[in-house]
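Recap for those who missed Tuesday's class. We walked through two folding examples back to back. For each one, the amino acid string is listed first and its predicted structure tokens come directly after. Nothing is annotated here on purpose, so try labeling regions yourself before you check the end of the notes.
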Amino acid sequence: MRGKDKDTARSSPLVPAAVGDAIARHDWASITCGCGRSAGHLEDTLWHAAEGHPAAFHALEGHVFAGTRLWPPAPAACAVLMAVWSAGPPRLATREALLRTLLALLTTTDDGTAYEAGLYGQCVAFVRAGLPQLSGGPACPPGSVTAAYADGIRDIIGLCA
């Protein structure tokens, strides 16, 4: 079974249904986390991130990525992060933490081969799909930290094309 039971599904007035669905779509308990345990504990962290808590994004380090290495939950976590952004750019502190986390995921080592995308390629695919929403607009005003992060993400995705 994927995610939580419908009867015990988590909800929050701060989290759009599409983001909750993105979290519930994955069977976190069956994924090995970067900390060595089941990634089931990342569900709470991702809910906190989706609710707008910047520290939750920082808490993904060591579980989803570490230095230049991605861990197995990375593609699923990346899908959730892009769902958060696509649901409407969050408030400034959350926006900066989210974009910094995406940039950290994209500056890891590509673990793919000529025959498969690997964790890195899967993350790039999720970010590439949401790339139009990372462009300009009031969420990324020119000269801002968020614009610098978004520019870095677009530059990296351009290199991966």
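Example two. Treat it independently of the first, because the proteins are unrelated.
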Amino acid sequence: MSAFRMHLRVVSESLQPEEISKRLGAEPDESTAIGSRKHPQSPPRSHATWIRHVGAAEGRARPEDLEPVVVGWGPDLAEALGRLADSGEGDVSLEIVQEITDLDDPQQKGMALGADLLAWMGTARATLDIDQYVFHECADEPA
């Protein structure tokens, strides 16, 4: 498994996932509807989510390996996302999750985002959300 995962996320308090898909001309990999519940006892969701995962051919992908996938979704999707964000009916974000399990593995640390991806995100009016998790057990201190 890669130390990095990436996905595009749209959140809306007024549009259901089907409406978001229609506006974007694209389908999500997963979604949640306004009013749906995570568990039967959970309160109804106040917003919808529309998520498209960014995948690479190889399992150990870094953000720079995933960039061509996002940029490859094309300018039409970026422009549709930008229109949706500008309308105020949806918030767009590109989310990167980084999990560091081996502090000595240079492939698990650092990231670089290229100009083409940043330009695509600008057109899409997407914010960048980076979640970082370090799983490391500290050595016992001598007494």
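Answers for example two:
The longest strand covers residues 91-100.
The radius of gyration is 18 Å.
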